Amino acid sequence: MLPFEISAAINISSQPLLDEDAELAAVYHRLRELDPTGIRFATVLRNTIDQLLNGEATGRYEWKKLFKTEKTHAGTMVEINLQREFKFDDGDHMDYKIDGIEVDCKYSQSDGGWMIPPEALGHLCLLVWADDYESKWSAGLLRINRQWLNGGNNRDLKLTIKAAHRDRILWLYRDAELPKNILLHMSPIDRTAVFSHTSGQARVNELFRRAQGQQISRNVIRTVAQQKDYMKRVRGNGGARSALQRDGIIIMGDYESHRRIARGLGLPAPREGEFVSAQVRELTDGESSKDSVPLDGKLWTLASPGDAPGLAPQLPSHKR
Q1: In whole angstroms, what is the distance from residue 242 CA to residue 257 CA?
Q2: 249 touches 219 (CB < 8 A)
Q3: Contacts of 286 (CB under 8 A, 6+ apart)
Q4: Distances (CA, A) of 242 to 232, 233, 313
Q5: Helix (H) or strand (E) holding 217
Q6: By mean pLDDT, which of 19-23, 123-127, 186-190, 261-265 is the weakest?
Q7: Which of 195, 231, 65, 227 lies closest to 132, judged by CA?
Q8: Tell me: the pLDDT tens digits for 39-87?
Q9: How far apart are CA 78 and CA 59, in angstroms?
Q10: Could you give the 3-state DSSP secondary structure of residue 203?
Q11: Is the overall model pTM greater than 0.90, yes or no?
């Protein structure tokens, strides 16, 4: 289904749950008010995964490379980072108070794998799931009822939600898009090429050369550079912008002027803390393109695979 059709379907199925539980409805509407599109939730989850990977120090970009203890700690980090982002009050018995209502937060690395502690019975739980391999995440609310839970076989008596009763979850966002982990989803050939270089600068240059037209976050740059001054590897004056200019490649940042250029070229605009690279070419006299931008007094469009690289134009260096 199209996104608006999915949203409509969720809203229809959720109405009975909203009608029967006033506290559930209050928390639901408050969270939707704080984050209507889900972008804040998605950013917290992306940043938390990257925080766990700690690419600058480890070079890791894949969840499977985390230690078991790090994966176990993920739920606590998601809980903390959501509270920091949304400034939820501390709960008296659960993790948060949202709109004055006690809410526990549970994160799972698999859809449906939430572990519910006995003390959460009767309370609302914010259930969060994210999968870096599928680039998806979900968040929903559930009033914990013992009859909807499987028996606990672990030492701390934590319970899981029966599959037959997961329709009781009031979804805030379901299978939403998680900002993509570029390194994880690159082709093995491109990823090997990026990490084949011994210097951080050369690796960053190769990344922007091979991941054109994609939103590349600072955390990806940090992982590839593995240097404290990783942002210096992007800029001009010796960074990737100047190194790739002779290959016709421009690197747009999160300045509004750069976002307009990306949109004008038919590319995704960089969000906060992101970059998008692209090889461009000058339009010749009499040539036109619906996806073109004026730079340095000339019109530019995306280069085709067979185009010979030429010197790229300079980009605006500040917001306009």
Answers
A1: 19
A2: no
A3: none
A4: 11, 10, 11
A5: strand 216-217
A6: 19-23
A7: 65
A8: 999 999 999 999 999 999 999 999 999 999 999 999 999 999 999 999 9
A9: 22
A10: helix
A11: no
Confidence check: pLDDT of 7 > 50: no
What is residue 124's three-state secondary structure? strand
User: Taking each helix axis from N to C terminus, what angle separates 200-210 and 218-225, rounded to the nearest 10 degrees?
Assistant: 140
Q: Are 159 and 2 in contact, with CB atoms under 8 Å apart?
A: no
Q: Which residue carries 């006299």 as its tokens?
A: 285
Q: Which of 274, 273, 276, 272 is nearest to 264 (CA)?
A: 276
Distances (CA, A) of 319 to 18, 38, 230, 243, 252: 44, 26, 22, 23, 12
Cβ atoms 38, 45 nearer than 8 A: no
Complete DSSP assignment for 246-267: TTTEEEE-SSHHHHHHHHHTT-
DSSP assignment of 79-101 equals HHHHHHHHTPEEPSSSSEEETTE
- Tell me the two tokens of residue 163: 């599959």
Q: Which two tokens stand for residue 80?
A: 């903390």
The SS3 assignment for 281 reads: strand
**Among 47, 8, 38, CA closest to 176:** 38
And the tokens for 62? 């894949």
C-alpha pair distances (Å), 248 with each of 85, 268, 309:
39, 19, 5
- Could you report the per-residue pLDDT of 205-246, keeping only the tens digit for each? 999 999 999 999 999 999 999 987 888 888 877 789 999 999
Structure tokens at 49: 């995964």
**Where does residue 125 rank: exposed (0-12), middle (13-18), buried (19+ CB within 10 A)?**
buried
Return the structure tokens found at 307. 């185009």
